[in-house]
Design a protein that fits this description.
With 271 residues, the chain is α/β, with parallel strands linked by helices. It has helices at residues 5-17, 34-47, 66-77, 82-96, 106-112, 114-123, 140-148, 163-172, 193-204, 220-227, 237-245, 249-268, and strands at 22-28, 51-55, 100-103, 128-130, 152-154, 156-157, 177-180, 211-214, 232-235. The protein has a nine-stranded parallel sheet with strand order 5-4-3-2-1-9-8-7-6. Strand 6, helix 8 (163-172) and strand 7 (177-180) form a beta-alpha-beta unit. It is globular and about 45 Å long. The N and C termini lie far apart (39 Å).
Length: 271
């Protein structure tokens, strides 16, 4: 199977053709349960997300703030495995036909085996991987297998990245570039701001790839602000918090579906 990088690219291009940013949601696999996590991904797609990143829960998620760490802990205590992540991708993509990526730290892939991981992700219909802690200069093995299986390799750039470094990162990536709008860990913030806009401008100067902004967006107003300069708006902690705060799983699914609807209006400028 060639994978779904083309579907990812087509989805981003279609949003651009509509004169808007794509809405990209993040949810960890296995949270609140494996079945509940699959239902949550389907719910955000129903609400209006264009693309979903499925997180592979990690015991030490260095990029992720307390909200996602809490969800990861719940998933890990529930015994989530890479097989459950693949099942989440398979069922969510199969039910919606929309692009689903995996966001993961490098260590679990390294232990599992790069060839095995990429083959299984492609077979599940996955569009690719976001690899926040894999240095570009150490990524050749991953990229070789990802390319073989038609998977996108999405690297993360940060405001601290110098222009030459941005060029090196974007030249190695595919699918899109993940621009971390602020230094530090993920979480919702009052303002996303000028730092993100400057990073997108500098990143776009090095690549034709779409540049999508994550870290800090939690409502339609912020989504509209970021949509003014980015090709995609990535929202994670706000979705996870809705699930954590819900009285039960059904209420959580309603809450993330509603949030996706609000954010979808935001990226379209119709909020």
């Amino acid at each position: 199977m060639s994978g779904n990088i083309q579907l990812l690219s087509d989805t981003l291009a279609a949003a651009k053709a509509e004169g808007r940013s794509a809405l990209i949601a993040y949810l960890p696999a296995g949270f609140p349960t494996v079945d509940g996590g699959i239902a949550a991904v389907k719910a955000v797609f129903e609400g209006g997300a264009d693309i979903v990143e499925v997180g592979l829960p990690h015991s030490d998620p260095v990029l992720d703030g307390p909200v996602i760490q809490t969800a990861d802990d719940i998933a890990l205590k529930g015994g989530v495995r890479i097989a459950d992540v693949m099942r989440t991708v398979r069922e969510a993509h199969g039910a919606t036909g929309k692009p689903v990526l995996v966001m993961t730290y490098w260590n679990p892939i390294d232990r599992y085996g790069v060839e095995r991981f990429t083959a299984e992700l492609a077979d599940a219909g996955g569009a690719g991987c976001i690899l926040p802690d894999l240095p570009v200069q150490e990524s050749a093995l991953w990229r070789e297998h990802a390319q073989k299986h038609g998977l996108a390799t999405v690297f993360v750039v940060a405001p601290s990245s110098k222009d030459a470094r941005l060029a090196e990162i974007t030249a190695a990536g595919s699918g899109f570039v993940y621009a971390a709008s602020l230094m530090g860990v993920t979480g919702t913030r009052e303002s996303v701001g000028a730092q993100a806009q400057d990073l997108v401008r500098r990143t776009k100067a090095t690549t034709e790839l779409p540049v999508c902004v994550g870290l800090g967006v939690s409502n339609a107003t912020q989504a509209a602000e970021v949509a003014g300069f980015a090709d995609g708006v990535i929202v994670g902690s706000a979705f996870v918090k809705r699930m954590l705060d819900a009285a039960d799983e059904a209420a959580g699914l309603d809450a993330v579906r509603a949030l996706a609807g609000d954010l979808a209006k935001g990226v379209r400028g119709t909020a």
